[in-house]
Amino acid sequence: MPVTEDAKELQGDLIRLRHDLHRHPEIGLHLPRTQEKVLQALDGLPYEITLGRDTTSVTAVLRGGKVPSAGTEKQRPTVLLRADMDGLPVQEKTGVDYTSRADGAMHACGHDLHTSMLAGAATLLAEKQHQLPGDVVLMFQPGEEGFDGASYMISEGVLDAAGTRVQAAYGMHVFSSLEPHGTFCTKPGVMLSASDGLEVTVLGAGGHGSAPHAAKDPVTVAAEMVTALQVMVTRQFNMFDPVVLSVGVLHAGTKRNVIPETARIEATIRTFSEASRVQMMEAVPRLLKGIAAAHGVEVQVDYLEEYPLTITDEDETHTAEKVISELFGERRLSRWATPLSGSEDFSRVLAEVPGTFVGLSAVAPGGDPATSPFNHSPYATFDDGVLADGAALYTGLAVSRLATLSTAS
């Protein structure tokens, strides 16, 4: 029976797990309930399980029972599959009957689907254990949403959990818009932007609103900085190597007739090349310190390096495209022409070993991907119908890549 049909038989279980996780989202690096549910899903399956020391991660290793071909003795074929598990600090407004019961928390990015799909793949792979000429590492990761959970798992040895270094790694991410329902999306090379943070505090001198000349107003300086940052992006950077800078926090003051002591700016910065990323790290502080000096105020600038570029391996991307086409047909495959300006800490894994990242549209069947609320929206919904397909793809990627690795000389 094809793996897609095997996966469909698990659909009911996958939906129940996904809905349970969705009702009880957890945020950050410590997801005890989510970890418990993953362990329950793996219970009774032939996996070697390691729990994170500093996080509630789960690493599960399946030892394939088939002897690899000659020539692979020194490097036993090993493939990694990753799913992130954490939610977001978002108040859900979808109205679905399995809406989050945690106040101020929601699986608004579909990680509940990722976890359920990889749990399904765990079952499917266990059933094929005797056919596998190598090992599979399952990476259930907390803290993707701004906590860099992948770094913790890498430092704790997830890439070497099977005893030999992982030779290929695959991650998957669902989307609540962008593409028609059930479409798989890939791109070789730069697939997702790098993401950095900017925190700025303008230090002025407070005073009465009627006498700004007797104070040092940080508000007008901060306002000029916000505008100047946008102008800088358009005048110092190549439009064909874009930079996205979005100010999400602009805060100052307590009352309209009081000039405050300080003003605060926080922004996210997305770049699509290492050259632009380095240039931004130099240009932003220079600009902001110059504006502050011109106005006679002080400024504190913290440029926070966060997630690097998500760069997929061309050969591994072709492998994923081939598996997708074989399992679901070419009509279900979309190769992106340009990167997406979201960011991912799976980039940490791809910086260490060859691999790729696959998007999967969970837009409701017949829904308009152009108008459906996007990931991170309190109205974002993800269709359960893609769960079996995601589990099948995880499984197919591992089976296919182990087969080619085992025959490589």
Order of helices and strands: HHHEEEHEHEEEEEHEEEHEEHEHEH
Structural class: alpha/beta
Strand content: 15-25%
CATH class of the largest domain: Alpha Beta
Q: Please tally the helical runs, counting DSSP H or I stretches of 4 or more residues.
A: 10
- Provide mean pLDDT, rounded: 96
List segments where confidence is low: pLDDT < 50 over at least 5 consecutive residues.
Answer: none
Give the radius of gyration: 24 Å
Distance between the termini: 30 Å
**The CATH topology of the largest domain:** Aminopeptidase
Which second-level CATH architecture of the largest domain applies? Answer: 3-Layer(aba) Sandwich
Number of spatially distinct domains: 2
Task: Give the tally of β-strands.
Answer: 16
> What strand order characterises the main sheet?
1-2-4-3-5-16-6-15
Portion of residues within helices: 25-40%
What general outline do the C-alpha atoms trace?
elongated
What summary fits the major beta sheet? 8 strands, mixed
Domain Peptidase M20 dimerisation: 197-289
InterPro entries: Amidohydrolase, Bact_exopeptidase_dim_dom, Peptidase_M20, Peptidase_M20_dimer
Binding site for Mn(2+) 2: 109, 111, 145, 376
GO molecular function: metal ion binding; N-acetyldiaminopimelate deacetylase activity
Task: Describe what you observe in this structure.
The protein has 409 residues and is α/β, with parallel strands linked by helices. The chain is 33% helix and 24% strand. The chain has ten helices and 16 strands. The protein has an eight-stranded mixed sheet with strand order 1-2-4-3-5-16-6-15, with helices on both faces. A four-stranded antiparallel sheet has the order 10-12-8-13, with helices on one face. Helix 4 links the parallel strand 3 (78-84) and strand 4.
